[in-house]
């Protein structure tokens, strides 16, 4: 094949399957194996109704994705027409696309926790008070409504073909599946420093004030380290999973749509000048400060920790306090 033909081949989009379709059997097998592990070592890690809800979330998300896939593809191809360059299907382009797509996911994921409109869709993934591989299946039914796909459009505008972007996005999703487990504690420090791991992602699913809105990474934890959103798992503080205001129900439709219902109620009842705030400000925001956001919860916790620390120091320095013996 001549040089011109090779160059043309690199520019022609290949037929790429959805890698997630091929990973589903492995997902099922790993969930089964984790269930066996939990039955022997930690029976409380799985709750039948919770697991069934997670499976229903996954099924519904698949159906919703199939319904909206055509519209997302059409918009992606339309944006691709106005690309700044044409990036070939070369080995280096695949690596660049994978890394940049993971950064786009970080931006999306961080936004999904900081803007209530996007949180209304993403909250589905955090609604379980258990943390196991079935939790990974809790994907949104309303991602298209929330416009989450917009965060990948800049890659196509830059010149990556939509087929490449969707394929590496599938790989990203596959990677994130296995980190939803408590069966694995920690990896070697070099791996924990670069990659997202079960330990890092457990932090992300926590409701503890120390951990709220941290570790947004998909594959590479370096984004959190770079942008100040990384927090390590602390062994002496057990993680509490779920959302700040727990649902207290396994009702599937309520689990899927409860935050959208909450937005509608708040927008309807809010003063005119504050209506948009209930869609675009952080979850928990109110115009009168009557509810907590993750920031106010963390600030109150930090103040409490500082007070405990100062009280402890004052007690140790007080006259008559027992001083520790020198080594």
Report strand %.
Answer: under 5%
Spans of at least 5 consecutive residues whose pLDDT stays below 50 are: 322-327
Q: Which range best describes the helical content: under 10%, 10-25%, 25-40%, 40-55%, 55-70% or over 70%?
A: 55-70%
Separate helix tally: 14
Taking the alpha carbons of the first and last residues, their distance comes to 77 Å
Structural class: mainly alpha
What characterizes the major β-sheet?
none
What would you report as the Rg, rounded to the nearest angstrom? Answer: 23 Å
Number-wise, the strands total 0
Overall shape: globular
Summed over residues and divided by their number, the pLDDT gives a mean of: 92
Please trace the helix and strand order, writing H or E for each element. HHHHHHHHHHHHHH
What does this protein look like?
By secondary structure, the protein is mainly alpha-helical. Helix content is 59%, strand content 0%. It has helices at residues 3-11, 19-41, 48-80, 91-114, 116-126, 143-146, 153-158, 162-178, 189-194, 198-204, 222-227, 252-269, 277-280, 294-317. α2 (19-41) runs parallel beside α8 (162-178). It is globular and about 70 Å long.
Q: How would the blueprint of this fold be written?
A:
Elements (H helix, E strand, L loop, with lengths): L2 H9 L7 H23 L6 H33 L10 H24 L1 H11 L16 H4 L6 H6 L3 H17 L10 H6 L3 H7 L17 H6 L24 H18 L7 H4 L13 H24 L10
Helix pairs in contact: 2-8, 4-5, 4-8, 5-12
Give a brief rundown of this model.
59% of the residues lie in helices and 0% in strands.
Features:
327 residues, mainly alpha, 59% helix, disordered C terminus
